[in-house]
Specification:
Elements lengths: L1 E4 L6 E4 L6 E3 L6 E4 L1 H9 L2 E2 L11 E4 L2 E13 L2 E10 L4 E7 L2 E7 L20 E4 L2 E18 L10 E10 L2 E6 L7 E8 L12 H8 L6 E4 L17 E3 L6 E3 L3 H14 L9 E4 L2 E13 L6 E10 L3 E8 L2 E7 L5 E4 L2 E4 L2 E20 L8 E9 L2 E7 L4 E9 L1 H8 L2 H4 L11 H16 L1 H5 L4 H22 L1
Parallel strand pairs: 5-26
Antiparallel strand pairs: 1-2, 3-4, 4-16, 6-7, 7-8, 7-12, 8-9, 9-10, 10-15, 11-12, 12-13, 13-14, 14-15, 17-18, 19-20, 20-21, 20-26, 21-22, 22-23, 23-29, 24-25, 25-26, 26-27, 27-28, 28-29
Length: about 500
Amino acid sequence: MQRILCPQCGAPVEFKSAASVMAVCGACRSTLLKDADSVRRIGEMAEVLEDYSPIQVTSTGKYEGKRFDVVGRLQLRYDAGFWNEWYVWFEDGTDGWLSDASGQYAVTRTRPPKDTEPALPAFDDLAPGSPLNLDGKVYTASDIRRCRAVSGQGELPFAVGEDGWEAVVADFRAGDAFLTLDYSDTPLPQVYQGKAYSLDDMQRASLRAEHLVEESAGNYVGKIKALACPNCGAPISFAAAVATQVICPNCRAQVDCSGDTAEVLAKQKKVASVRTTLALGAKATIDGAAYTLIGLMQCEDPDPEETSRWIEYLLYSPKQGFLWLVESDEGWDKVRVCDRWPEAASDASYAFNGKRYKKLYDYDSKVRMALGAFNWRVKVGDVTHITDYGLGQAKLTRETTDAELGWSASERVGTAQVGRWFNLPELAAVKEESSEKPNSLASIAIFASVAMLFFNADELEDGHLLAPIIGGLCLWLPIWIQNMFRDK
């Protein structure tokens, strides 16, 4: 939800989502339009959810049993988004960094070089998924980025000039271990080591209040103009995406909505025509936390032989961070990005939380439509390579792009459950398919088993076991095959 002040009368006006391109002021009834440049940008890429971090200078927390204070912030930007590096000071007089990227956190400290330091790779030789063996641990490259340090706040161990500087960094993961190689100053990188971090270890009272997070995350960057009568200057309002010519209620002049205004109206009509099960701005209560649906994108597997499409909804909670819901022909999945990474158990399986997930399939995900706001700038045409690993109804998903690799964990949820979360009676009333329904393959197998036993009754009386053995195989083999494909 974005908040602006009406340029006509100064009253606060809310755009229900970043995808909305027009709103009517409740005070003066002016129709407010986002400028055409913003409309064009919304048409190709989603807005970035700015400054949604609950951390602030003066926040406090604990890491490995030691208290720290957040004393400064460095913000780094790249073409599709940004992240924060919070400078922290420990009670023992040492310092470190609290990384804050897309709702994931890690604490790292400088690792002094060792006498027997292994040769570290050159930045240009790295790619997402590259292995790195350091201190007896094998790390995997998760993020390879050239970005720009653009602003600083509070106390920092160095000065941030007006123009900032180029930061050249590579992040690596291994379970909950976190490693950063910083190539910004010299070809030989500075090494930072640490672990993934949970906000549960922060003093909650020292974090930003939820209403402050919501307000700052809803800022709109761009121009808003009011549609005013060119004859008398009075504010004009009209039905969204309907009128191209309106009559001024004050002087009765006919107003032609052309030029940039027509472009905004056309975009509003296109946005309004998009129909999804869940709407931008929808509220939900999931696992006791309040969420708002802030972004959605339609994706497809571009494989010409077997094209499939699905909708990914991004939800945000100031208390719990980001959560995804994925709607496909197979149903609904609740998805969270993994703070602790899975570990390879074999060539075709990964271990996660004590369980082994087997490889299912590889495919690509291409963005066909993106509306709303995300924690990075989603563009139409973006392609991500996906590998899914399954265990029953649960999945692990490995997502790889040219610059980044990430993991997420998902679980299947019912349509009725989604309806209860969002207070949608029409969904909450949907009856899920019973897992106790008759199994057609099992019925066929039982019939075949009985028939075999009947036709081999003589052999059974003679003590031969061939008939019951064959019957048992006929009974269980189809069930085993069906369950195997159901898991996939």
